[in-house]
Amino acid sequence: MSSQTANDSTSGIDFQRIGLYAVLAVMAAFYLSPLESGLMTAFKSQEAFIGSTPFVPPPPSGFTVEPWFEAWSRLQLGVFNSLLLAIPATALSAVFGSLAAYGLTNVNWRGQVAVIVLFVAGIFVPYQSVLVPLTQFWTMVGLDEILAAVPMLAERSGLIELIITHTAYGIPICTILFRSYYATIDPEMLEAARLDGATVARIYWKIILPLSVPIFAVTLIYQFTQIWNDLLFALVLLTSPGNQVVTLSLNQLQGSMVQQYNLQMAGAFVAALPTLVVYVLFGEQFAEGVAGET
To answer: Is 179:97 a contact under the CB 8 Å cutoff?
Structure first.
């Protein structure tokens, strides 16, 4: 009796697993099919792309890596400029968000609720609603004239405007992310530090900051991806061809008369590569930060 029950149970578990794996395989194929189609297209010649469906691997006569080299040659300046933009803007918004969240979570002072409400409201301001006032603001500031004494910086005034804009725009979401994380830190530990005479700045430097590595990884990945993929602010603020970021360069791969889909797909993978590298480097800390582990 017991042997029959065990056999039925084992058989049931096997069928469940087979069904589960089948569902997972179908879902994986469904979600990865656009990626696979893009990758196959990027390795096809123009003739092979026209003569086959996108998800079919290229035939030996239609296989080529030329689109990848051409995409890299046309995007490398944009990739470099995007790194100049994304790295400082990401770091600045994360640092300022951390400081603001510490002041709003672990330091008691009046008016905190009103300031938190402002930060939350700042998250929901869409890019499109600030394009006109943002353009007018930077025209009034005249950053290129201010930096005229330093030609190297004056040439990059568009990128500097973009760095400041993205930093300001990213501070609200970074502050809220850091605040939710700092709320989980044991208040007795901070109180003990205060009783030992530690100042607010020393507590942040010696206790809060070392515990913030996972949430820094979360904000860095989030902000880097947002800034790297931005097209709208770059389209409005960048006027010099030498300051073009990768999203603008990628947009220019679109031909006016003939669509080179293999080139566009290769360019899309080249443009996405840095964000994948960031995820790989900070993936473990990202998982800890999302889980709220301190």
So the answer is: no
pLDDT the model gives residue 1: 46
CA dist 43 and 58 (Å) reads: 7
Instruction: Tell me the pLDDT tens digit for each residue of 210-223.
Output: 999 888 988 998 99
List the one residue out of 126, 78, 114, 111 whose CA is nearest residue 268: 78
Is the pTM higher than 0.85? no
- Token pair of 85, please? 């933009």
User: Nearest-CA neighbor of 269 among 98, 17, 43?
Assistant: 43
The CA distance from 234 to 142, in Å, is 17
The mean predicted confidence, pLDDT, of the chain is 87
Buried b (16+ CB within 10 A) or exposed e, 121-147: ebeeeeeeebeeebeeebeeeebbeeb
Going by C-alpha positions, the residue among 212, 224, 214, 223 that lies closest to residue 291 is: 214
238 in Cβ contact with 162 (< 8 Å): yes
Dihedral (C-alpha) 263, 268, 274, 279: value to the nearest 10 degrees?
A: -140
Q: For 239, list phi and psi in degrees, rounded to 5.
A: -110, -25
Mean pLDDT of 147-163: 89
Structure tokens belonging to residue 39: 């990758």
Tell me if 294 sits within 8 A of 184, measured CB to CB. Answer: yes
Please give the pLDDT value at position 121.
92
